[in-house]
Write a structure and sequence with these properties.
74% helix, 13 helices, mainly alpha, 0% strand
Length: 311
C-alpha cells in the first residue's frame, strides 16, 4: 500500500497546560475588572448584570452547539467525524462550568428581569406580568433552569465518558449507547435551549413576542459550535484530511444560511403581521443609530461575509 501514513498517539493527550493557564488567567482578570467596574461606579449593577448575562449566553452557545452536533452525528451513525470527534466532545464537556457562571445571573435576577419588579411599570405591563405569573415566577424559573442544565450537562458528560471508556478498551459497546442516546436527546436539547432563550433573554423585554426566537438562537448555537470545532481541530493539529474539513465547512455553510433564514423570517413575520404588541422591538432597533450599527454588523459579518467565503 503506497502513500503516507499518520502515526496516531496511543496514550492520552498531553500538553497544552500553558495556553490553558493563560486563558484561565485572562478569564480571572476579566471577572476581576468586571467586579472593579461595579465597585468603582463605572457601571451600574443593572448594566453589569446585563453584560454578564450577554457574555454568559454568548459563550454557552458554543458547548451547546457541540453537544447538539455530537447527538446529531450519533443519530446519523456518521463515520467520518470519528477522528476529530474528541475535540467536539471536549468542547461540549465545558458545559458544567456554565452552571457556576449562571450564579451571578441568579444574584442579579431582580435587577435584570422586569417581571421581578412589576410595580416599576405601568398598568398594561403589570397586567401582562400578572397574566404570565404562573410561568414567570422565581420558583418555576429556577426549576426550569435546573432542568435545562441537567439536560445539557448530562448529555455532554455521557457522550464524553462513554467515548473515553471505549477508547480504553473496557466498554466496546458504548457506541451503541450513544447511537441510542443521540436521536433520543436531540428533541430535549432543542426544546431546552429554546426555552432557556425564552426565559433568560426574551423575558428581558416586556412586550416582545416571537415564535421564531428559539429557532434563531438554536441555529446560532449550532453554527457557533461547528465554527469553534473547526478552529480547534486545526489549532491542535488533529490529523484530519481535506475531506474532513470540507464536510465540516459544508455544515458550517448550511447553518450560516439557516441562521440567516431564521433571523429574516422573524423580522418578516413580525413586520408583515404589524401587530402593535410585537413591532416595537424592531422599531426600537431600526430607529436607534446604535442598534443600526449592530444590525448591519450582523448582516455583513454574521451572514454575508461568511456566506461568500464558505461558498
Amino acid at each position: 500500500m503506497s502513500g503516507s501514513t499518520t502515526e496516531l498517539p496511543r496514550g492520552p493527550f498531553e500538553g497544552g497546560r500553558r495556553p490553558m493557564m493563560a486563558l484561565a488567567l485572562t478569564g480571572v482578570i476579566g471577572v476581576a475588572l468586571w467586579i472593579v467596574s461595579v465597585i468603582a461606579g463605572f457601571a451600574t449593577p443593572e448594566r453589569a448584570g446585563y453584560g454578564w448575562l450577554w457574555a454568559f449566553f454568548f459563550w454557552l452557545t458554543i458547548p451547546f452547539g457541540a453537544t447538539g452536533w455530537l447527538s446529531a452525528f450519533y443519530a446519523a451513525k456518521a463515520k467520518w467525524p470519528v477522528l476529530p470527534r474528541r475535540m467536539l466532545e471536549l468542547i461540549a464537556a465545558t458545559m458544567p462550568i456554565f452552571v457556576v457562571l449562571f450564579l451571578p445571573v441568579l444574584i442579579w435576577m431582580k435587577e435584570l428581569y422586569p417581571w421581578q419588579r412589576p410595580d416599576a411599570f405601568g398598568e398594561e405591563a403589570r397586567r401582562l406580568f400578572e397574566h404570565r405569573h404562573a410561568y414567570l415566577n422565581v420558583g418555576f424559573f429556577l426549576l426550569r433552569a435546573a432542568i435545562y442544565f441537567v439536560i445539557f450537562v448530562g448529555v455532554s458528560e455521557l457522550h464524553l465518558r462513554w467515548s473515553l471508556a471505549q477508547d480504553k478498551g473496557d466498554r466496546p459497546l458504548n457506541t451503541l449507547k450513544s447511537w441510542r442516546m443521540g436521536p433520543g436527546s436531540l428533541p430535549f436539547l432543542g426544546f431546552a435551549f429554546s426555552f432557556a432563550a425564552f426565559d433568560w433573554l426574551m423575558s428581558l423585554n416586556v412586550t416582545f413576542y416571537s415564535s421564531m426566537f428559539g429557532f434563531n438562537v438554536v441555529a446560532g448555537a449550532v453554527m457557533a459550535g461547528m465554527a469553534v470545532w473547526i478552529l480547534v481541530t486545526i489549532a491542535v493539529g488533529t490529523p484530519v484530511s481535506g475531506h474532513h474539513l470540507h464536510s465540516m465547512g459544508k455544515l458550517l455553510f448550511a447553518f450560516v444560511c439557516f441562521w440567516g433564514y431564521t433571523a429574516f423570517s422573524q423580522f418578516l413575520l413580525i413586520w408583515i403581521a404589524d401587530i402593535p404588541d410585537e413591532t416595537p422591538w424592531f422599531h426600537q432597533r431600526l430607529d436607534s443609530p446604535s442598534w443600526l450599527v449592530v444590525g448591519w454588523f450582523l448582516v455583513i459579518f454574521h451572514f454575508a461575509a461568511p456566506f461568500v467565503i464558505l461558498l
